[in-house]
Amino acid sequence: MLNFGLNQKNITTKKFLIYGFGLTGKSVLNFFKKKKIKNFIIVDDKIKRFKIEPKTLLNKIRETDYIIMSPGVSIFNSKMNRYFKKSEKKIISDLDLFSIFHPKNELLMITGTNGKSTTCKMLEHILKYSNRKIHLGGNIGMPILNINPRKNSKIIVEASSFQLSYSKIIKPKYAAILNISNDHEDWHKNYTNYKFAKLKIFSNQDKKDFAYLQNNDLIRKFREKNFKSKLVKISYKSEKFFSKKISNNYFKYLPNLKNFIFAYFFLKALKVKDKSIFNSLKKFKGLTHRYEIFLKKRNNTFINDSKATSFDATKHALESNKNIFWIVGGIPKKNDKIIIKKFKHNITEAFIIGKNIEHFKKNFKGVIKFTISKNLKQAIKDIFQKIKLNRDNTILLSPASASFDQFNNFEERGRIFKKYVSIYAKKYL
Hints:
There is one protein chain. Helices cover 36% and strands 17% of the residues. It folds into three domains: 11-92, NAD(P)-binding Rossmann-like Domain (Rossmann fold); 99-281, Mur-like, catalytic domain (UDP-N-acetylmuramoyl-L-alanine:D-glutamate ligase, 3-Layer(aba) Sandwich); 292-428, Protein-Tyrosine Phosphatase, Chain A (Alpha-Beta Complex), CATH 3.90.190. The strands form three sheets. A six-stranded parallel sheet has the order 6-7-5-8-9-10. Strands 11-12-16-13-14-15 form a six-stranded mixed sheet, with helices on both faces. α5 (116-129) crosses α11 and α5 (116-129) packs across α12 (274-281). By secondary structure, it is an alpha/beta fold. The protein is globular, with a radius of gyration of 23 Å.
């Protein structure tokens, strides 16, 4: 374990501040109770019983030894940002706490702008099929501190840029950045901060560890920073070879195949045999809301890609289909560029939803046909009144935007899409 000043022996003597009481904050609280760590306070600006005055919070920050920051909280945007910045050395993540208490469990850590969850689930599926001891957690749904790992088991961790930004001592045995594009500038302030947060995944690795990269810019930065781990450069030149070996239509969608290629290099490092890998993929279904083909009826294919919250995530769906009736809209990511000329012949019509209509209108005007729909339900109804039964249509929800203007999250957006598609499919088809 790195010499960080916090370890299993002295942790009960330290003072902690848990900032943010969402899923991560609750998992830290339960962890502290389990480890009999009593010297801590909880602060959350949105929960009445955990609110404290700025002056009191400042005193608490000064008194505390470590601040465990929830990944949803940005020190750049917090009301107390100048105090947190001064105390940045105190800030750690739930990933750090896990590393302190489970140093012998090897971490397989995945980050990237798109495809993290899918790649992690893919690894879990294949390794379980191969009878390996494995756990999955992190940003994918189960906070990592909720995992009680078995001896010698490996931990697959989906790591967000937020978690990595705060982490100090994580040391994954195998670490990958799948891809990178402009994202989360509202949290990180700029693309440079975002990129370097991602690169922190390699900062504590040594020469016995492995780093997996495909992006040339990240490879250059990796070398400039003199990271110590063994760099494994991923090439997509073998796409055709893998697509022939895999008998599952899920992998005909190029991003899914690229995610698998990363996973394949992890699996070979773990000495998993090809026969086991490719046999396991026959039954792999992927995750909901991520290019989810959930209905095919009378030459119409319905795809729920609600997780696509940037144009970089959406463009693959536009590239992979024809005769697309495309539902798009929501809260665009900061500095996200919509460039659709390359895909315009694949798009029959776009249906704009959400509260940022003008943003999409100015990008679509004169390039593709579009309709302004009141909301998601109305967009679906509009599409069903237009689709023709004698041609192959693709009805695609791939919003290229965050969902918070009309929905609680992308999952709710995807569920509502599937609900009304099912209702109107019975009525019109």
